């Protein structure tokens, strides 16, 4: 992540602001828990006051201190002793860490509030999608205009120069990249939804995933958006593949097992083939062949899954969000490492 000139560059203030943003993140994380859960229950955010979901007893102010309150209560309601979900301290702690890390990466810059806005909405989406497979448009679509503003003011070379009789201005390369990323996100997921409906009679993905990746793309640009998609599907496969394999073996569904592995291996091999010590034409043909095998295997896999109605019911949004956070903070380094692996690094 690149950063414009820090508004406060005195190194002696770093520890103070790290602590400040950590505490701010803890408080904001507590609020994001409320926002997400009340969105899901269709309850106003402002009222009623925070209360135990079991006994409805209002939470005392000293019990409502982010993270510390949960620890002092031993994770239980003071009144009814019902366990309080570990979601609350985990979200608060995660938000505090992300806020502090954002400050360390950007400093006190004009782009920092936009990144914090992105992270807050991603955290709410993570909760709502993981719990109820719902992505609210107010969280996802609001990222698009915010991301475009961020991409305009973030430092980047001029992409286009526009000249007229009375004016002359340049469009930042980052803004152009953001527009391309938004288009990529829309085409990718809406294309998958269209193909899934045409081939299998059902939507393979939700439109909320489209809105999410478009909003993320407005912040990250097209290169890091592609990285986000790759990371998201890899992260999603970690819990999904074992669940599916166990089910297939148990049900003796070897067609799904073989086609699924064929799709996975066919898409993974080109990463290694591109760096193999083979003639260029042979590498190109091998990559095309692997991708063809992957697509055919994927088609057989999806048809089999559709016929057997064997789903994992794991939403993709949380995996995409984890991928986008990795891409936001470390994406440039990951891309550079990959280019170096291919021998294309500068």
What secondary-structure arrangement, pairings included, does this model have?
Elements: H1 14-41, H2 68-72, H3 87-106, H4 112-132, H5 137-140, H6 143-153, E1 158-163, E2 168-172, H7 173-200, H8 207-251, H9 254-273, H10 280-308, H11 317-341
Antiparallel strand pairs: 1-2
Helix pairs in contact: 1-3, 1-4, 3-4, 4-6, 4-11, 6-7, 6-8, 7-8, 8-11, 9-10
Using only C-alpha atoms, the radius of gyration works out to 23 Å
How much of the polypeptide forms β-strand, as a percent range? under 5%
What is the distance, rounded to the nearest whole angstrom, between the alpha carbons of the first and last residues? Answer: 18 Å
Q: Can you list the strand order of the major beta sheet?
A: 1-2
Q: How many helices in DSSP terms?
A: 11
Provide a short characterization of the protein structure.
The chain is mainly alpha-helical and 346 residues long. The chain has eleven helices and two strands; from the N terminus they run ααααααββααααα. It is 68% helix and 3% strand.
What would you say this structure looks like, in words?
By secondary structure, the chain is mainly alpha-helical. The protein has a domain at 10-108. Helices cover 68% and strands 3% of the residues. It has a two-stranded antiparallel ribbon. Helix 1 (14-41) packs across helix 3, helix 6 (143-153) packs across helix 8 and helix 7 crosses helix 8 (207-251). The two termini are 18 Å apart. The mean pLDDT is 83.
């Amino acid at each position: 992540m690149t950063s414009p000139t820090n508004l406060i560059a005195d190194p002696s203030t770093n520890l103070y602001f790290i602590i400040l943003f950590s505490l701010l993140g803890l408080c904001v994380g507590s609020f994001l828990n409320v926002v997400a859960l009340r969105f899901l229950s269709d309850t106003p955010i402002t009222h009623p006051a925070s209360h135990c979901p079991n006994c409805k007893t209002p939470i005392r102010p000293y019990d409502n201190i982010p993270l510390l309150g949960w620890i002092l209560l031993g994770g239980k309601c003071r009144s009814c002793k019902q366990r309080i979900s570990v979601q609350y301290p985990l979200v608060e702690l995660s938000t505090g860490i992300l806020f502090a890390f954002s400050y360390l990466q950007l400093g006190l810059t004009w782009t920092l509030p936009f990144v914090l806005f992105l992270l807050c909405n991603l955290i709410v989406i993570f909760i709502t999608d993981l719990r109820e497979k719902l992505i609210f448009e107010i969280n996802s679509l609001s990222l698009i205009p915010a991301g475009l503003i961020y991409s305009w003011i973030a430092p980047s070379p001029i992409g286009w120069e526009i000249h007229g009789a009375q004016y002359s201005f340049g469009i930042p390369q980052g803004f152009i990249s953001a527009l391309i990323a938004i288009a990529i996100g829309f085409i990718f997921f809406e294309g998958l939804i269209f193909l899934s409906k045409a081939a299998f009679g059902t939507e393979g993905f939700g439109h909320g995933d489209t809105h999410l990746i478009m909003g993320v793309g407005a912040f990250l640009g097209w290169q890091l958006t592609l990285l986000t998609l790759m990371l998201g599907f890899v992260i999603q496969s970690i819990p999904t593949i074992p669940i599916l394999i166990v089910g297939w073996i148990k049900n003796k569904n070897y067609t799904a097992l073989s086609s699924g592995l064929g799709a996975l291996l066919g898409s993974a091999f080109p990463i290694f083939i591109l760096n193999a010590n083979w003639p260029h034409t042979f590498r190109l043909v091998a990559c095309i062949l692997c991708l063809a095998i992957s697509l055919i295997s994927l088609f057989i896999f999806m048809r089999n899954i559709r016929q057997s109605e064997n789903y994992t019911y794991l939403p993709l949004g949380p995996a995409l969000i984890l991928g986008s956070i990795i891409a936001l903070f470390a994406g440039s380094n990951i891309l550079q490492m990959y280019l170096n692996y291919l021998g294309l690094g500068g």
